[in-house]
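Practice record 12: protein with zinc ion.
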Amino acid sequence: MIKRLQQHLAEEAQARAEKNHARLTQLTGDFHILLAELSGNSIFSDIVRRLTALSSLIISLYDSPAASACKDDEHNAIVEAIEKGDASVASELMLEHLEHVEKSLKIDDDELDDFDIESVFNEMLS
Ligand SMILES: [Zn+2]
């Protein structure tokens, strides 16, 4: 499990070094799915998969193209805590991380009122 997570972090680092933002956005989303899958709880990993897909869509719509919603070192810190077997630190770091992700999505209620899912898909298809 640790090996798989470290391998994933190496891929993230490589995409970051190559400034491949599309790949990095994909990989940072995949990190959350991988972590959920490794928990062995299929209902949880299904929920995370759906949330990640939705978040990636929102990131591509609202975030600057140069940014990734997942900050550079936060995944590493989470994996480090898991490696040490420190569950409480790992979950604390993940909660902090998700808060940062949520803030970076920069969506306020006014924007949500205007959220038009049809135009989102039209934009994706164009
Ligand atoms: Zn993340």
